[in-house]
Design goal:
Bound molecules: adenosine-5'-diphosphate
Helix content: 25-40%
Number of helices: 15
Strand content: 15-25%
CATH class of the largest domain: Alpha Beta
Strand order of the largest sheet: 9-10-5-11-4-1-3-2-16-17-18-15-12-14-13
Shape: globular
CATH topology of the largest domain: Rossmann fold
Largest sheet: 15 strands, mixed
Number of domains: 2
Length: about 425
């Protein structure tokens, strides 16, 4: 067996977002953390319709992003991918130096294709493209908070000119009047642009229906580039339909725990809700770590006593005032790193103590935990809250770990308990 769709995502949480959309449209999806060694494609391809390789290529120098993307492409082709999906942020995060343009052109060259599309539209998340202009909610990109982004400030909302500044070949537009006319009209426009030497076309989309029409129109293109929105329109090209079977994970068992290193508002609310319910929880204090105390050891001793009546929560979550005080004393980066390292050790210790169902809160925290646990791939399962699925991963020793990686601002107040309730419901079904 070989995979249908091979995806290259320029960051980790974006990869999960894309994978989640593909699963909801009926594909079985595996997300890989970085490019696996050559020769390993056969193992994954038997069990997946799509593979998403998560890179960290959004803000690295363009040459590095190109190199990593081409390695990912080679692996995906060895897994038999029929179409390649280059996934970037729905706010088109990039600069005149890249990396969306250079990576797109390198992938086109490697695939021997002269044309592709580009659209960050994801109407469900408030990202729409009209006349080539990207809107974030009700405002143009350049009037949104992205204007002040520290690494990729977006000061032009016209994606034709934004992408034009990053590419050597002409950029065109497939505007909404064409998209609204359906897949046939989009295909004719593609043929026309191609005949005029346009290499990449920005495509308008203001609704999911637009994405579905676009998905049908790009059937057979070797390469598509987009945010995660286009994923809702592609699986149907291979006959996939939404089905719970696509999200099915192996049965879960073992102790339950939550590790939270996020200090975002949503996570603070989730921690508070968990504490209010009177369940066992251990607070990790960065100042005590800095003072040389074995905080990870203390957290694990506490957890060990309570795991049989779990879930157990280990958290560093604090109000923003307290975090600022700690950052003032230790430095923001140092405090963050101390906490990440400690929580990663805690996660390792929890797994050694039999935890097999683990919720992790925080984007950076998730990265540290995944690395400490030596996870290389995640099978994407059912969605707990929008954009946050349960996943199954093989531990290096062979056991299966059910894990969900929640970036800070995702999830409702009851996320921690909702997550485990969903696994229980799956087991009962
Ligand atoms: P989010 O997804 O909410 O941004 P991250 O894990 O990406 O969460 O980032 C949170 C950062 O804050 C991490 O580097 C983490 O180690 C750090 N952090 C967590 N708790 C504290 C705390 N109590 N004091 C200072 N820094 C903290």
């Amino acid at each position: 067996m070989s995979i249908r769709l091979g995806c290259i995502a320029d960051d980790f949480t974006g990869a999960t977002d894309l994978a989640n959309n593909l699963v909801r449209a009926g594909m079985r999806v595996v997300q890989l953390i970085d490019v696996p060694p050559a020769g390993t494609a056969g193992d994954v391809a038997t069990d997946a319709d799509a593979v998403v390789i998560a890179l960290k290529s959004r803000t690295v120098p363009a040459a590095e992003a190109v190199d990593a993307s081409l390695r990912a492409l080679a692996w995906l082709r060895s897994a038999g991918a029929e179409q390649i999906y280059f996934k970037y942020c729905s706010t088109f995060d990039s600069t005149p130096a890249g990396n969306i343009g250079p990576v797109t052109e390198a992938l086109m060259d490697a695939l021997g294709t002269d044309f592709t599309i580009a659209t960050p539209a994801f109407p469900d998340n408030g990202r729409t493209v009209f006349k080539g202009h990207l809107f974030v909610g009700d405002v143009l990109l350049a009037e949104s908070g992205m204007r002040n982004h520290p690494l990729t400030p977006m000061t032009d909302s016209n994606l034709v000119s934004v992408l034009g500044a990053q590419t050597t070949r002409p950029v065109g537009l497939i505007d909404h009047t064409v998209v609204a006319d359906g897949a046939e009209a989009i295909r004719s426009r593609i043929a026309e642009l191609r005949a005029n030497g346009v290499a990449t076309a920005i495509v308008d989309a203001v609704s999911n229906d637009d994405l579905v029409r676009m998905g049908a129109a790009v059937q057979g293109l070797p390469l598509v580039t987009a945010g995660s929105g286009l994923a809702i329109g592609l699986p149907a090209n291979w006959g996939f339909r939404p089905s719970p079977a696509a999200a099915q994970l192996p049965p879960s068992a073992g102790h339950r725990a939550i590790v939270s290193g996020s200090v975002s508002e949503a996570t603070n609310g989730q921690v508070l809700e968990f504490l209010k319910s009177g369940r066992p929880a251990f607070s990790v204090d960065p100042l005590r770590i800095a003072a040389g105390e074995d905080v990870a050891g203390q957290a694990l001793a506490f957890a060990e006593a309570h795991l049989p009546d779990g879930p157990v929560l280990v958290y560093s979550t604090e109000t923003s005032d307290t975090v600022r005080t700690v950052q003032g004393r230790l430095g923001a980066a140092e405090a963050g790193e101390l906490v990440e390292r400690t929580l990663a050790r805690v996660a390792q210790g929890l797994v050694e103590r039999g935890v097999r169902r683990l919720v992790v809160a925080g984007g950076e925290t998730s990265g540290a935990v995944v690395q400490a646990l030596g996870l290389t791939g995640l099978r994407i399962g059912p969605q707990i809250d929008p954009g946050v699925p349960w996943c199954a991963a093989a531990l290096p020793a062979g056991d299966t770990l059910h894990i969900t990686l929640k970036s800070g601002n995702f999830g409702g107040p009851g996320f921690f308990t909702d997550a485990f309730a969903l696994l229980d419901a799956e087991a009962a079904a």
